[in-house]
């Protein structure tokens, strides 16, 4: 089996753009050469053990235009998530409304447990270490989001003849906004960060997963699923495009410590 250095040398002779950050990976189980463009725009060439370096170089050269298009798209849509600082005045979006953070020592008289949101656009949270304030605010997103999810998901249950569906809101990492898990779980789950997106995108993520929960036949995003999406949300493809762009700037939990005041020596 030819070693990776021989493949690297063959690809280097193609004078590929350096920003592609081409890597080679010999995969014992592969039968054909493949190309994978990573979310940040890097390129991985997946090579079967029987391939020769000159064959791989010809394959990559023949797919140069395709790689260029995919790298450009991946770079344009690379995540650039918001970073929050847990100080007075920091802004948070929740269910289509913008709130300003206000740190307090105790709940206002007659108010519910902290954190809480008010009709005048204030998100009140207890004064504490930033990592604890972050955890509390995410908990609020989960609580408010789950109530919305259960309420709004009901219309899809009735229309799609979906019975016994469960709902959860939790952290799904940085690659998924929602998932549907089939029986026996039969659960629609949305990422808590979804609820910081514009309402039309929150609605899209819900409809997307409920279309899976309706359990259409065929492939996961095949004709039956698409038919359901067109029925429920005629502009779903436009919303999907918007999510790809807006979602990469969304707050998914990143935070920075409070700035320390500077002082002269």
List the SSEs and their pairings.
Blueprint: H1 4-12, E1 23-26, E2 34-37, E3 43-47, H2 53-62, H3 64-76, E4 84-85, E5 91-94, E6 97-104, E7 116-117, E8 122-126, H4 130-160, E9 166-170, E10 178-181, E11 187-191, H5 199-213, H6 223-232, H7 236-246, E12 255-256
Parallel strand pairs: 1-3, 4-12, 6-8, 9-11
Antiparallel strand pairs: 2-3, 5-6, 7-8, 10-11
Helix pairs in contact: 1-2, 4-5, 5-6
Short description:
The chain is 37% helix and 19% strand. With 265 residues, the protein is α/β, with parallel strands linked by helices.
How would you characterize the overall build of this protein?
The chain is of the alpha/beta class. It folds into two domains: 4-76, no CATH class; 129-249, Metalloproteases ("zincins"), catalytic domain (Zincin-like), CATH 3.30.2010. 37% of the residues lie in helices and 19% in strands. The chain contains seven helices and twelve strands. The strands form four sheets. It has a four-stranded mixed β-sheet with strand order 5-6-8-7, with helices on one face. A three-stranded mixed β-sheet has the order 1-3-2. Helix 5 (199-213) crosses helix 6 (223-232). The longest helix has 31 residues, at 130-160.
Total helical segments: 7
CATH class of the largest domain: Alpha Beta
Structure class: alpha/beta
Largest sheet, described in full? Answer: 4 strands, mixed
Give the H and E element order.
Answer: HEEEHHEEEEEHEEEHHHE
| Helicity level | 25-40%
Distance between the termini: 64 Å
Global shape: globular
Look up the CATH topology of the largest domain: Zincin-like
Could you tell me the number of beta strands?
A: 12
- Count of spatially separate domains: 2
- Runs with pLDDT <50, length 5+? 261-265
CATH-defined architecture of the largest domain: 2-Layer Sandwich
Our Rg estimate from Cα atoms comes to 24 Å
Q: What percentage of the residues does DSSP assign to strands (E)?
A: 15-25%
CATH 4th-level superfamily of the largest domain:
Metalloproteases ("zincins"), catalytic domain
């Amino acid at each position: 089996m030819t070693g990776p250095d021989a493949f690297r040398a063959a690809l280097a002779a193609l004078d590929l753009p350096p920003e592609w950050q081409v890597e080679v990976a010999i995969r014992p189980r592969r039968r054909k050469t493949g190309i994978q463009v990573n979310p940040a725009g890097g390129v991985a060439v997946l090579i079967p053990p029987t391939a020769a370096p000159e064959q791989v170089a010809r394959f990559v050269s023949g797919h140069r235009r395709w790689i260029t298009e995919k790298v450009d798209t991946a770079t344009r849509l690379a995540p650039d998530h918001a970073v929050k600082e847990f100080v007075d005045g920091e802004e948070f979006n929740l269910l289509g409304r913008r709130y300003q953070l206000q740190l307090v020592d105790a709940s206002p008289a007659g108010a519910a447990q902290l954190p809480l949101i008010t009709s005048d656009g204030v998100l009140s949270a207890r004064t504490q270490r930033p990592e604890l304030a972050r955890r509390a605010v995410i908990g609020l997103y989960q609580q408010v989001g789950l109530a919305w999810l259960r309420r709004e998901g009901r219309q899809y249950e009735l229309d799609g003849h979906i019975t016994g569906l469960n709902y959860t809101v939790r952290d799904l990492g940085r690659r998924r906004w929602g998932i549907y898990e089939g029986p026996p779980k039969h659960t629609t789950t949305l990422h808590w960060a979804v609820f910081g997106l514009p309402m039309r995108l929150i609605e899209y993520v819900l409809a997307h997963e409920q279309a899976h929960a309706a359990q259409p036949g065929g492939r996961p995003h095949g004709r039956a699923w698409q038919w359901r999406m067109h029925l429920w949300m005629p502009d779903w493809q436009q919303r999907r495009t918007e999510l790809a762009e807006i979602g990469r700037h969304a707050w998914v939990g990143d935070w920075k410590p409070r700035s320390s005041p500077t002082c002269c020596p």
